[in-house]
Specification:
Number of helices: 10
Radius of gyration: 45 Å
Distance between the termini: 95 Å
Order of helices and strands: HHHHHHHHHH
Oligomer: single chain
Helix content: over 70%
Strand content: under 5%
Structural class: mainly alpha
Length: about 260
């Protein structure tokens, strides 16, 4: 009920201000007494009239005055670029707009500065209310766009790390299969010759040597099939099979311990 009373009062004041401005330009003589008597009729307005208000919550007299002062102050600053004068205009307009519309007749006769300033204040508040959904939509769009960019960047980084991990796993698998072709001492000798650290396991040493370009990760290329068959024939071993089978046979027989 209190909210309804506020809406009725705000609507009454708005209509009173609008009528006084209209009468100031269309009629001569004293119109304040007529409107003062009509205030009672405005208070008895129907609920439908109240629901026609643009704003969902009736603006207070202070908010109307503040909006009016801000509007005039901003416009004066844009036009004149004088901060002090704009501040004075803001203060004066806020004071004039804060006057009670019903008691405006107590001031100078025919003075419509109060009604005009309040009309401007109400229009400014209506504009702000209408702009809120658009502003919220823009803010949500900006936030969503920023979140999308962040998530997209993170996703790309994860994909790159995943790809690097796949390559590392494939490389590690290949090195695990080739480690049997090397002894730890041979790998350490190669590392010393290349001024590299010799600590670590055989796999760590092989990875270090491959990264430094001192060791190739495909050891079968160090021996041709003809050379492997020659070694097998020399040691009276079976010479049939693929290159990989020959290399494994030679290593198991001790004919080929280290491939470098």
């Amino acid at each position: 009920m209190v909210q309804l009373e506020k809406e009725v009062r705000a609507s009454t004041q708005a209509k009173l201000d609008l009528n006084r401005v209209k009468d100031a330009f269309t009629t001569d003589g004293d119109v304040y007494e007529t409107h003062a008597e009509a205030d009672v009729e405005f208070v008895n307005m129907s609920f439908d009239d109240v629901s026609d208000s643009k704003t969902t919550v009736a603006p207070t007299q202070f908010s109307v005055a503040l909006a009016s002062g801000s509007a005039f102050g901003l416009l004066s600053f844009i036009a004149l670029h004088m901060p002090m004068l704009s501040f004075i205009i803001f203060g004066l307009t806020t004071y004039v707009a804060s006057r009670d519309p019903i008691r405006d007749e107590e001031f100078a006769m025919g003075d419509i500065t109060g009604p005009v300033s309040r009309i401007v204040g109400r229009k400014a508040l209506d504009y702000i209310e209408e702009a809120k959904p658009k502003v919220r939509a823009v803010v949500r769009a900006v936030v969503a766009s920023g979140s999308y960019d962040v998530l997209n960047a993170r996703n790309q980084k994860l994909e790159e790390e995943n790809e690097e991990m796949k390559l590392w796993m494939e490389r590690r698998k290949a090195i695990d299969g080739q480690a049997k072709y090397y002894t730890l001492d041979a790998l350490k000798d190669i590392a010393r010759e290349s001024d590299l650290k010799v600590s670590g396991t055989k796999i760590e040493l092989m990875m270090r040597l491959i990264d430094a370009g001192c060791l190739k990760d495909d050891q079968e290329q160090f021996y041709t099939l003809a050379k492997l068959k020659k070694i097998a024939k020399r040691d009276k071993l079976k010479v049939s099979g693929t290159k990989a089978q020959l290399m494994e046979r030679l290593i198991e027989a001790g004919s080929l311990k280290v491939l470098v």
